[in-house]
Amino acid sequence: MPSALAFPLMMGVLACVPGWLAVDRDGDGLSSLNGDCWDSPDGPVGSALSGDQINPSATETWYDGVDQDCAGDDDYDADHDGYVAPGYAGLPTLGVADSGTLPEGDCWDDPLELLPGQQVIQGLDSLGNELDWVQPGASLVFPGAVDPWYDGVDQDCAGDDDFDADADGWQTDDYPHRVSDGSDELEFGSDCVDDPALRRGLDSYNYADEPASAIHPGAVETWYDGTDQDCDDNDCDADGDGYSAGSEFCESMDCDDGDPQIYYSPDVPETWYNGIDENCDDNDGDQDGDGFWVQDYDERVEEAGGIPMELPAGFQAGDCWDDPEDAESFSALNGFAELSPYDVFPGSDSDTWYDGIDQDCAGDDDFDADGDGYDVAFYQQRDGSVGNDCMDGSDLDDFSPTGKDPAHVNPGMSEFWYDGTDDDCDGNDGDFDSDGYYLESYSFRVPPGFEPGDCDDDNSGANPGLPEDCSTGFDDDCDDDSNDRDAVGCIDFYLDSDGDSFGVGEPGCFCHPAGLYRARSTSLQDCDDADEAIFPGADEYCDEVDNDCDTEIDEPDALDAVTWYQDLDLDGYGWSGTFTVGCHQPPGFVNDYGDCDDTLSSVHPGAVEYCDGLDNDCNELEDDFAVDAATWYADLDGDGYGDPDDSWDSCSQPTGYTALGGDCDDSDGNSHPGARELCDGTDQDCDEVPDNDCIELGSIIFTELMQDSIELDDEQGEWFELYNLSASDLDLQDLVLRDETGSQLYVISNSITLSAGDQMVAGTSLLATPDVTLDLAGSISLADDTGVLVLATFGTDGTDGVVLDRVEWGLDYPVSAGSSMSLDLDRYDYVLNDEPSSWCNVAILYGAEDAGTPGVENGSCRVELDSVSPTGAPLEGGSPVVLGGRGFYRVVAVTFDGMAADFELLSDVAISAMTVPHPAGEVTVAVWDEDAEYPWAGVFTFY
To answer: How much is the average pLDDT of 837-848?
Structure first.
């Protein structure tokens, strides 16, 4: 690409003389007055031009950065369309103001050069019409120009395909384009709808109004909608069999356009009952052509592996013989005329009974004309069998003189006896009991094999041909007497005058009692036939009479005999295990059997109950309501003390009761005699005086903790300090030390006094420090980084009392290995000790490596210097001085006018320091802690 020439425009200037004289310095015959824009003999540096080659008459050479013809044009826009070709943007033209500012993107700039890609297409469109595209010039080709589609020229320089207006990647089949090999040959694309405006023009019809970009050879076809989405000239024949399916846009020629083997044609053979209408005549189930589809059509199709068709209009379902191949199953029986499948269909009025063919397909039995469910007995069926209905037709005279309906005569009917009709077809109408005898009163013909004269046709055991039998209880032989003397099975009866069923004398044999012959007794004779209460086997009573005729009087089995029980301990109550029965009381026996221990006279029903483990009163309960039972009190809160108003007397302690009463609030386990008194206005110890000897909230606080000893391990070296803020000595007994959840817990079981204004050290062992007062014996472990320590009243789990103080430390607390965490003396308060800023580390050693102040009142966490001694004396380097103040256990450095000095920590309020060499004059002393500098405002003089 040419480089822009950057040099000033040189022009000859004439001297100021009267009038202007034109000077032609480059000898091209033109001066600046004639429009020569370059009049120097030498051309622009780097241009390879001489001055006389630049003038209005010169021939312009484009794209070299020089305006040779002095026309004032941008040398990179040859077609003057306001755009430069790619790569020329920003290149100025010599002597042309504002040149180099035109945008790039012009794809045809040289009007004298016409490339094949810039020529319009010549030829014919798809309809054979001559193309009449207008050839644009270079000035009409630039970004943003109006670009007619399909002329082959990219007039707007967009770089898109001029034959793919809908940008779907497929070129139109309406207009030809050049082949891709760069030759002059033309070819058509395959996109049948390419115009985005859907003007249709040469485009195919698009009745579905699809966007043009959705129609091309790669699209998915939507059938029968009037739009050929895939441009294959087929919108109506999905199965490709040459027959279209019917729609608004397609001729109806195919009833199944998903199967190429199915279409409208009488020549297509039909395979019956497979769910497919092969020849599109809407018939797959009426093979015999009688207008009725075979009744098991669905089952036949499913068995063939197909899907049943819906019943078409003009057909009815239910044909029971449709397939001619089933002729053997429909052959006529019993000499009747043969039929064809066409003759058999639902509703036929020509059904002949007993021919074995259900001609009307009604599903009824062809051998049951009367419809009573029983086949006729006079016609053979297809399997060779015959029925058992004795009257199936309308010929009634031979079977029913009473004119009964044939449907009411069959083996399943109940026989209506004695009317002359054999209703159940068993050949019998007058012998109900089937004993071979008809009733004497039967008025119709008695069939052969039966005899008249039956006196009871409900009983087969009663007729003239049988002997009398006592076992039946009726007139067996029909002689009007059912108690014949000496009948079969007769019984001996004796005279029984008193009617007690025991008789005397010789017997008579009858089927049942007759007159005074009513006693059945044979070997046992009545000993008093005048008294109905006296007979063999009668109930014996204690009445001095032989009631049962056994020659004994008042035997032990008398109904009113008494049971007597042995009474060994003579307490008036017998034991049920030893007894006798009789009308009279034996010696040593009583008639009360309730004694539960017949060896102790103090044990019997009604005796006094004692707490002796015995059931004294024999009520099956031991020690119940004993006179010496103890009183127990209900203990609902489980604190060992019961409600004096809710007691129970019992020999043993009931569940939920206690022997100690006196609980003043049995709903609160913290209230009972001897309980720790809380400062809450409630009488916890039940002495009727609230809040006496109570510990106020905030009276005892944590002031110092050693969580991580260096000298000892956690089990031996941890300790913490408690401080009594109150004005009274406090007893710590029953207080609880625990972690947050109570999983670690220590109950102070002994009386330990913490004096007013004093502190006490509790340690994990007596080795923790020499000052340990309370040995926690490994019950509490202080977490090194984050943890919680709680002091509370009551409760073995620490949750049911009052939390007196709680310390929770974390990452923002001064937790450090080998140094205790100390509460600032000025912030001794159970609320203020919850703030991380109230705590600091201690630098005073109490052992070889561990620092802290166990058992000693803490100092301040804020270092303050308030004195230096001696004061006013001359000082020099190496002089000892004593610094006074507070919080010194946090001091990490001492300086004199910024120079570090050696120092020794004497106590929390005193430091010994050695002065450093210093020029004569005043000096300022300062101490430094971990956080800040705290200078003392004093003047000291060095000499």
So the answer is: 85
Reading phi first (left if > 0) and then psi (alpha if -120 to 50, else beta), residue 601 is in: alpha
Residues in the chain, total = 943
> 35-83 pLDDT, tens per residue?
888 888 888 888 889 989 999 999 989 998 999 999 899 999 998 999 9
Distance, CA of 245 to CA of 232 (rounded, Å)? 17
Q: Which residues pair with 561 in a beta bridge?
A: none
pTM above 0.70, yes or no: no
Single out the residue of 899, 900, 895, 870 nearest to residue 882, CA to CA: 870
Which sign, positive or negative, has the C-alpha torsion 562, 567, 571, 573? negative
- Using DSSP bridges, classify how beta strands 803-809 and 787-793 pair: parallel, antiparallel or unpaired: antiparallel
Which residues does 825 contact at the CB level (< 8 Å), separation at least 6?
A: 857, 858, 859, 860
Beta strands in 169-229 (DSSP E): 176-178, 186-188
Tokens 């009972």, residue located: 672
CB 149 within 8 A of CB 158: no
> Rounded to an integer, what distance in angstroms lies between the CA atom of residue 596 and that of residue 609?
13
Residue matched to tokens 């199965």: 239
Average pLDDT, the chain: 84
Structure tokens at 274: 């497979």
The verdict on whether omega for the bond into residue 854 sits within 30 degrees of 0, i.e. cis, is no
CA distances for 897 relative to 277, 428, 877, 891, angstroms = 117, 149, 13, 17
Question: Torsion angle, CA of 590/596/602/605, rounded to 10 degrees?
Answer: -70
Distance CA 426, CA 446 (A): 14
